[in-house]
Amino acid sequence: MTRTELKQLKEQEEKERKKRDKERVRVEKEYQKELEKEGKVTKSRVIENEKSRETGRFLTKAIIIVSLLLAIVLAIVFLI
Question: How many Å apart are CA 65 and CA 52, to the nearest integer?
Fold first, then answer.
């Protein structure tokens, strides 16, 4: 096999993997909606992971903002 053929093969595999992942997520969401309609609500890992990532991003931003404000206050206190 040539490098071009290997590259095309890898690209094709990557496209297929992305397509499978997209389909899997779609099916999981549909199944989750069906369970919610039936009253059997369970939390999926995907939803929980998304929530934890959002919380992590929020907390990271909050820490950075508080650190910057603290640095400004300390600079003002020591320079005045």
Answer: 20
